[in-house]
Specification:
12 helices; alpha+beta; 15 strands
């Protein structure tokens, strides 16, 4: 890494934020804190915003707001005072060392789409590749694959929009109830999620979930502790100390996750060492099964002695109250050091994949 002040040897770190999903605002908030924490002696920081309409802009005013930590003041889309950019021109600068850090939560960012573009462009990027991103993002696919590998989960059912006329709310409640969660298959941050106990509520929840995706998931409501674990690495990932979500709300919702609602996060979780170790092992196993790399936050339930895998998030939140950086801080890795490690992992993975792309002589 370059010595402080030698700008020519700094890594060009492109923080890609915003996006077209319902998690646009959360992406902006996460990006603001990354830009504030990354060491300017190591990185030439380049924030690039994607508006809700899909335009790519290097907007000076937006960058200033992000750097000041006032991302919540951004309007509905990233201000376009800058010139609209072609993605290729925005990402390719000819710099010797460029890494893209996509902080694009949800569809069109966390689902393998942006990752595929970066693969084609030959640019190193933080986080999982196309397959890992796509599988982890799609709850139905992730659950199916994890189930095939013997990872224990709460009971679940899937429903596509084309199956909607055959929906029997009473049948769903009879199979999964008395409490059922209804979720879009491809969405995060608890957006579009409903907790239901009656057929009428379930039908309304289905309508809500279909606003965000053509595929939805019904999950059994479980009485359990909500435990999370951070995973970091490529071929040999490691797990952070685990944390617990303690909520007084119906469930850990959008407000609690990002705007200091009624929930409390406990890091590290008050668990026996043996239980904590099993949960960390489960998190690493899920990370590997879904072909993840770089980073992920693994969400689990602890029901008695049973560990139930809930979700694997390949681009976890990076706000001040987000669990992923908090769990790694409790493990001994500060926020700036976590950014450094993610950049190093991106370069390592890119170098390894570049070897495989070379045609044999």
């Amino acid at each position: 890494m370059a010595e402080s002040g030698n700008e020519h040897q700094r890594t060009r770190l492109i923080v890609l934020f915003g996006g077209q999903s319902a998690e646009h605002e959360i992406s902006c908030i996460s990006a603001s804190h990354i830009l504030r924490a990354a060491d300017p002696a190591k990185y030439e920081l380049i924030p690039i915003g994607i508006t809700r309409s899909g335009s790519w802009v290097a907007a000076d005013k937006a960058a200033a707001l992000l750097a000041a930590g006032r991302a919540q003041e951004l309007p509905e889309s990233v201000p376009a005072e800058g010139t609209s950019l072609e993605p290729g021109a925005a990402l390719n600068s000819g710099a010797a060392a460029t890494v893209v850090l996509p902080i694009l939560h949800g569809p069109n960012g966390e689902d393998g789409t942006v990752q595929g573009m970066l693969e084609l462009a030959g640019i190193p990027y933080v986080g999982s590749g196309v397959l890992g991103s796509a599988m982890a993002m799609d709850k139905v696919m992730a659950k199916t694959v994890l189930e095939a590998h013997g990872i224990q989960q709460a009971r679940w059912l899937a429903l596509s929009r084309t199956d909607l006329p055959d929906l029997s709310a009473k049948q769903v409640l009879a199979e999964l109830g008395p409490v059922v969660f209804v979720k879009p298959a491809n969405m995060g941050s608890s957006i579009g999620i409903s907790k239901v106990t009656t057929a009428q509520q379930l039908e309304a929840a289905v309508t809500e979930a279909f606003l965000y995706d053509d595929l939805i998931v019904f999950e059994e409501g479980v009485e359990a502790r909500e435990i999370e674990c951070g995973v970091l690495g490529n071929d040999h990932p490691s797990a952070s100390r685990v944390g617990e979500i303690v909520t007084t709300a119906d469930f850990y919702d959008f407000e609690d996750k990002y705007f200091a609602g009624t929930s409390e996060t406990v890091v590290p979780a008050d668990l026996p060492a043996e239980t904590s170790d099993r949960m960390r092992s489960t998190a690493i196993a899920a990370f590997k099964i879904l072909r993840c790399s770089g980073m992920a936050r693994v969400d689990m339930f602890l029901r008695g002695d049973d560990i139930l895998l809930n979700e694997v998030n390949t681009i976890p939140g990076f706000t001040p109250i987000s669990m992923y950086p908090k769990m790694w801080k409790a493990t001994g890795l500060t926020y700036p050091d976590l950014i450094d490690e993610l950049v190093n992992l991106a370069l390592e993975r890119h170098q390894q994949r570049s070897i495989h792309k070379v045609s044999p002589s």
